[in-house]
Amino acid sequence: MGRIINIIKDFSLVGKISLIALVIILIIAIFAPYLSKYPHDKPVASPLKSPTKEHILGTDDLGIDLWAQIIHGARISLIVGLGTALIAGVGGSTIGILAGYFGGFIDKFLMRLADVMIVLPELPTMIVLGVFFGSSIYNIIIVLSLFSWIKPARIVRSKTLSIKEENFIKIAQIYGAKFHYITIKHIMPYIFPLILISFIKLINRAIIAEASLSFLGLGDPTSKSWGLILNYAINFSGIYFTPYWKWWVLSPLIAITITVVSIAIIGREFEKIFKLKI
Amino acid sequence: MLNRKGILMGNKNILIISFILILSLLAGCGQDNIQANEKLNKNNDNLVIRLEGGDWGYPTPFLHYRRGPGAYKMKLIFDSLLEKDEKGLIPWLAKEWEIKNDGKEYIFKLNKNIKWHDGNKLTADDVKFTFEYYKAHPPVWNNLIVNGKNIIENVDIIDDYTIKFIVNEKNATYLERVGTMPIIPKHIWENVKDPLKFYREEAVIGCGPYKLTNYSREQGIYKFKAFENYWGPKQKVDVIEFVPVSDPILAFEKGDIDTLMASPDILNRYENNEGFKVTKNKPFWGYRLIFNMDNRPELKDKSLRKVFAYGINRDELVQKVARGAGIVASMGYLPKAHKWYNPDIKKYNFDIEKARKLINGKEYSFKLLIGNSPKEVKIAELIKLSLSKVGINIEVKSVDNKTRDGLVKKGDFELAIIGHGGWGRDPDLLRDMYYSSETMESNSPASGSLPGFYNEKINELALLQMKQLNFDERKETIYKLQEVIAQEVPQIPLFNTIGYFVFRPLKYDGWMYTYDHHYPEHCKLSYLERK
Fold first, then answer.
1. How many beta carbons lie within 10 A of that of residue B65, not counting itself?
2. Is A118 on the interface with B (CB under 8 A)?
3. Which GO terms describe its biological process (chain A) (predicted)?
4. What is the pTM of this model?
5. Is B399 on the interface with A (CB under 8 A)?
6. In B, which residues are within 8 Å of A158 by CB distance?
């Protein structure tokens, strides 16, 4: 933990701003129910009100407060982002270490599996799976994870391969150290930065993927994520010829953009500091 | 580190794409002063009208999609014995007709010199063949079935241009039923064993004002060209093209299409603008909520159905979903603008207290089947919210619109919302819908009975009205029928839409509404010369 704080101190100004933005979004997501006096799923005012003091982002066509929807949507985006990144990051790294360390049949099997997943066209398959399993937020996390473990797995594998040939590992093995011990003590410290950066990128990927799925109308229709708000807004007949887009389209769009951009910048900062580029 | 470049690019791409996205959003809003398209066409030579496309099936009487946009494309190619104008039925292929023998014989005199698109002459033989063929192979929109029976007993040819129909009983609706069936050429169809597989070019040879010259299912393109040897009024529009459109409003503003159904929010762009003309569609298109009493027998209880009637805020639906461009539907089904509409029936204004009293503390949960259009999703969302306050829990299931149409026809649902036109037709539609029969008369979504619903009084009135040839007597029965229907609440008509139809009068001004239909694009006379 102390190591990460030190790294953050080395961030550039833009990096620090992004981090603050992300922390704010995180806080908003966690305390969402306390930050709005209106529910995110019930009409409370007349439809399509422009932003006022009462409704700082206005209301949508059903009269539901948009601020309440946006902060609730932050929760969904972050749950999907973190959930997918956790499953795919941990799973992918484990697979990468196993393949890199043991080599042979295990390596071949796991890497061919990864090849198969890379060949599958991502969005169409996600759409099919989403339709097939039904669109709940958990299913979306699982489907996204299925497609996201490959990159961390490959990166971790190649790093493991090169570390494995180092002399100190060879010596540890001669002294009888087993896979478990070597991974924790010797391999992890080397691949931790890689995993961290992959993790951050996975969050971003998942947030965008969820937004696109919802935007296409394949997300969880009851979840009111940012993508879904955008989907409803854009499907409103002639939205760009009315003033409503100014709050209804822009607010979810800006929320997605801020989140994704700040996460991307944080990822870049880590890359710079670790002198790594993946 | 294999993918160094790829991922770096990825990062930049995200930034660039989001930037472009925002820019493109802003761009759509710049031009507030749009001009009417200047492509004038003064002498109307080679006038091409472009309309919003989409695939609605191959336009033969057997292969078009069961909804209006499919059927009315087919009717551009195939004429029928009678046609409809603003007031009622008018002579068409038949120049005059007679009803004899206490309403059991219909004699039609055909116009001479009617030619099929391939040059052959239309005679009474073709008409006779058509009705016999329809008996063996029912078309998609089949008007000839009443209570499960084909109404035609016999078709006699008196001479080449006179034909006599003998029907099974006297009935107030038979003239329209017989008169509006599309006539097909005998010399082509007599050899067709399975019309559902007949996709050849000959299948779209009719005697109507337009020939189909291009159809692309994948792109949803149709092209109709005026038939030069048409027997009837001259076509004012030379070519009607249905073109694929991603955003109808943008396409209309750019002049890619010539008509638009505008929502009230953007109406101010076209009203008080000389280049445009706005007409109000008739409220003959609407949404209804159907109960499946076979699958959920508790819905046979009238008071539970009334809980829905009181517990759904239909006024809110009009305001929020239709943006005010609609009217709350009549509980007797026939909409306010219908000439047989009974204004003195029970109204069921939104009243949550009354609904709570009726449900009496019990709780229910139902699955609600809807299509995937944004409007239906909103209707479902609002209904769900307001019924949850009464104690009815709704689980919404949204599927593709065509899938929903199919499931509703099959009766595979608990509750369903469906929107369709045809609310302005002959009031015999009340029998089609509320009479308890298992038979399916037509494939149209506007037709078909309510699963599991049975009411003696409604059955009796529904059968009585169609046998009354006297206008006033029939009107009285229809009024009474609406009254009983409103008391029984067999289904919930939600609201009727009033679309705003926008077009450029300088380019084409011939749009008309038939007495029973909501939409000018569907009316054949919209494209023809009028007296």
1. 20
2. no
3. transmembrane transport
4. 0.85
5. no
6. 1-2
